[in-house]
Write a structure and sequence with these properties.
heterotrimer, A mainly alpha (295), B mainly alpha (277), C alpha/beta (427), B: 277 residues, mainly alpha, MetI-like fold, 0% strand, C: 427 residues, alpha/beta, D-Maltodextrin-Binding Protein, domain 2, 2 domains, 6-stranded mixed sheet, 3-stranded antiparallel sheet, 16 helices, 13 strands, disordered N terminus
Amino acid sequence: MINKLSYSKQKGILIISFLIVPLLLLCLFSLYPAVYLVYLSFMNWDGYSPVKTFAGFANYKDVFANKEIWQAFSHNFVYLGWGLLQNVGGLVFALMLNSKLRGRNGYRVMLFMPYIMNGVAVAYMFNYVFNSEYGSLNTLLHSVGLDSLAISWFGSPKIVNHVLGFITLWKFLGLNMVIYLAALQSVPSDIIEAARIDGASRMQTIFHVILPNMVRVIELNLFLTIIGTLEIFDLPFLLTKGGPLGASDTFLTKTVEMAFKFNNFGMASAMSLTLIAAVIVILSVQRLVTRRWSD
Amino acid sequence: MRTMRFQPLSFLKHIFIWIAIAVIIFPPYVLVMNAFKDKQEFTQTSVFKMPNSFLNFDNFIDVLQRAHLDKAYMNTITIIVIAVIGNILLGTMVAFVLGRFDFKLKKAVMGAYIAVSFVPTITTQVATFTVINNLHLYNTIWASIVLHFGTNVLQIFIYLQFIRNIPKELDEAAMMEGASLFRIYRTIIFPLLTPATATIAIIKTIDIYNDMFIPYLYMPSRSLVVVSTSLMNFSSERSTEWELMSAAILMIMVPIVVLYLFFQKYVFAGIVSGAVK
Amino acid sequence: MKKTAKITLVLSMCMMLLAACGGKGNDTNATPTASPDSSETASTDGELKGTITWATHRTELVDTDLKRYVEKFEAKYPGTTVKIEGLKDYEQTIRVRMAGNELPDVLSLVETTKADLPTFYEPLDDLGLNDNIYFKDYNSYEGKLYGITQQTAINGLVYNKKAFEKAGITAPPKTLDELFTVAEKLKAAGIVPMATAFKDGWTLQYWTDPAEFIYGSTSLRNDKLNTDTPFTVDGPYGQGLGILKQLYDKGYLEKDIYSASWDQTQKDIATGKTAMMYIGNWFFSNLIAAGLPSEDIGFAPLPFDNSGQFKGMMRNDWAYAVSAQSKNKPLAKAFVKFMLEESGDEADHMIISPLKDKKQDLPQLTEFMSYNPTMLEAQSVDTKVTTAENKMQFNVFKFIQESTVGNLQTVFDGYNKKWKAAKEATK
C-alpha cells in the first residue's frame, strides 16, 4: 500500500515517523534538563529546598568576578593541548594501520585497549605510575640514572595538568584512531589509486587526497576532543581532587563543588552555561580553521 | 607483488607502535601483580613486586562471592542489548533522514543534537533525575536503558559519513523498481551501514559497560547492580581493598576485551569500500 | 519478521514515553512537607511488617557486615525486609534524590539548613534514646531530634608502637616540645614521623582540633560570626594549625606530601614506615585489616602546648535518619534503634557507640583515658555560619593545606577578606 503513495508523501511520513522517537528522547533527557539549567542559572537555590528565589544576573556576575574559576579554566587548555596531540597521534596510527602492515590486526587491538578500561581502574593504575616515592615511573627514572627527572608528578602545580592530560591521551587515542580508521576505509580506494597512478608521493596522497576526503571526520574528532577536554571532570576528580592546592581544578570540578559542596545550584548552573558558551566560541574558531584549511 | 625484502619505513612503523604498546601495557601491569596478593602481602610488599604465587585465586573467589557478578552481568547485558539496538535503529533512522532528504527542520534537528552535546551531563542531573522519577523509571533497569537508548551526535556523524558514500544511484534504481522509502532504508541503507554499526555498537557497549554514574544515581537497588558498580563493594570513602579491587577490575575487563577481540574483525572488515566500488 | 519486531519496539517506546509524559504533571507539585504519614503499608498496633530501603555510605561493608545486621534484624522481626543501597559519592547522590523527592526510608543524614530538617527527616524522639546519646543537639531543630550519629569518634594520636621502639622512644609525647623531639628521633631512625594523607585532604580536617583546644571550646567555628577576622596568626587558628605547619616546615611529614594518599598512609603506618597520625579511633580497624596487630597500636592525646595538660576531642559521624517521606516509619525507626542497640556494629568495627551506656573496652581507649584528658564535644554548626562559609566557598581541607605549606599571614588575610564579604552578603 505504502508503495502506492507518491514519494513526496512517503517522504513526509517517513521523516516524521523516523524522527519522533529520537526527538522525544532528546527532548526529555537532554533538551529539557538543558533548558532547566538556564532557568536555574537565574535563581538562588541550594539544590534541595523547595524554595527558589529570583537572582537575576547575580550568579553570572559572581562567575565572572571569581578568579579561581577562571584560573581553573586555564587548566582545561592544557588538556586541550594534549587532546590535539592525541588527534595527531590517532590519525598517524590510523594511517599506519590502514596500510598493509604485518600484524596490524594485533596492533589495532592493543592500541584500542585503554579505551575499554574502566575509568576507576585507569585512575588507580596511574596513581601508582606517577607516585613520586613508590611510582613505577620514578623507579624507572632512578634506575637509569635520570634522578633529576624523577619529580613529584602530582605535586608540582606546573606539571600536574600535563600528567592528567597525558592520561587522557593514553585513554582516548585508541578511540580517535578507530574513528579515523573507519573514515579512511570509507575513502573510495579508486581515488587513491588514481592519485598514485598520477605519480603522487605517499605524503602528497595523504595530504591532498585522503585527508581532504575526511574533513568531516577530523572535525568530528576535534569536536569530541574540544568538548571532552574543556568539560573534563572524572580524571582530576578521581586522581587529584583538584590538588595540589587547586592546581588541577578544572572548570567542571569547580562547578560540581559549587553545586554539591557549597550548595549553590544557581551559581553552578550559571557556571555550566558560561562553560557551554566558551565551548561554542572555541568550536567556532576550530571550524573556521579546519574549513579554511580544507578549501 | 609483496616482497619480503627489508623495508625501512615499515620497520620504523613497527618500532613506533611497539613503543606505544609498551606505554599502554605499563599501567595494567600493576593490576595483574596485585590481583594475586593476599591482604598482608599487598600491604607489606611494593605494588610492583611479583606476587608470591600466581596461583592464589582467593581474591577472585572472594570477588565472585561478594560482587554478585552473575546478577551484575545479567543486568548489564540486558541494558546493553536493548540500548544498543535502540542506538542502531534510531541512529540509522536519524542519519537516513538527515542524509537523504531535505526538509524544513533539518538544520534544527541536527542543531539540537549538537547543542545538547555541549551540555555537561553532570550539571543537569537534578533535572534529569526529576524526569526519570516522574516517568516512574527510578530504581528500575529502564532508567539506564532509556538514558542510553537515544542516539547522539557521534553516532549520527559516523552514520552520515557512511551514508554520503553510498551512491544515490542505488536508491534511484530501487525507486525505479517501485520500492518504498522504508524498503530502501531497510534493504539498502541499513545493510550498507554495517561497518559503521559495528563500530558504534562496540563503542556504545564499552560506554555502557564502564558507566558508573547512571547506575549509581538512578538504580541504587541491590538487585539492579551492574558490572561497573559491583566494583564499589570493595571501596568506600575511608578504605579501599585494592587487592580485591585489582582482581575485580581484571575480572570485569576480560569479558569486554574478549568481546572486542571477537567483534573487531567486523569493525575493520572494510565492507563499505567493497560495496561502494 | 524483523520488520515487525522493529516496529513493535519503536511503537512500544512511543507509548511508554507518551503515557509517562501524560502522568508527569500530576505529582510535580507535591511538596515534600505535605504528606503526613501515609501508613497504609505499615501495620497497625505496633506489629512491624513490610519493606524499607536503607542507604548507606559504607559501601565496602554492604555485602558483608551490614548484610549480616540486616539478616539479624529480619530474623528478629519476621515478615520484614530491609533493602540495602550502598552509595558511592554518597552526599551528591542523596542531594540529587532529595531534590527529586525520592529519599530512602533509612539513610545517613545529609546536612541541610536546620530549618529544612523537618522537610526531609522524621523526628526520632520517640525512639526513647534521647537521654542516652551523644551529640543529641547536633541534628536537632526546635527541640526535635532528626538524626543520631552512627558512632562517636575520639580523635587522638594513633601511633605504631613498633616504630616508636625502633627509634628508641618509650612513651608518646606529653608536651608540644616533646612532640618535636619524638619526631626528630623518628626521622633520624629513617621513619616518617607524622602521616597526613595530605593529597586526599579530608584526613586533615582533624587538625582544627588543636585550635579548639587552645580556644578552650568547640564553639570556635560558630564564634567566627562575631568577628571580621577569625583567622589570626597569634590566635587559635594560627597557633593550632601552626603545629601542623611546624611539623611540615621541619620535614616531619611525608616526604612528598602531594603524593601522600590515604591508601598508602594506611599501608605505611601498618608496616611502621610511618609512625603517627592524628585521626579518629575508627582508624584502628583499618590498621588491623592492613596487618598491624592490635597490641602494636597506641593511642594518646595530641599535646598542643607545653603545659602537660591534655585535651581530647569527641566528634560525631554520619547520623542515622529516617526520611519524612517514608511509607513505613515504624519499621524504619525500629531498624535505626536496632542498628544502635543490637547490631554489634561497634564491637565489629572497634568504634564507640553513640549510646552513653554502651562501653567500648579497647586497650587503646584505656591508654588514651589514662592521660586524663579534658574531653571536648563537637558542637552543632550554626546555619548562619554554614551559609556564610558556602558563600565564601570555604573548603576546610584546602584551607588547612594552604595554611600548612603557605605563608600563614598571607593565607589568613585572604580568607579573612572572603569571610568578611560573605558574612556581610548573607546577613
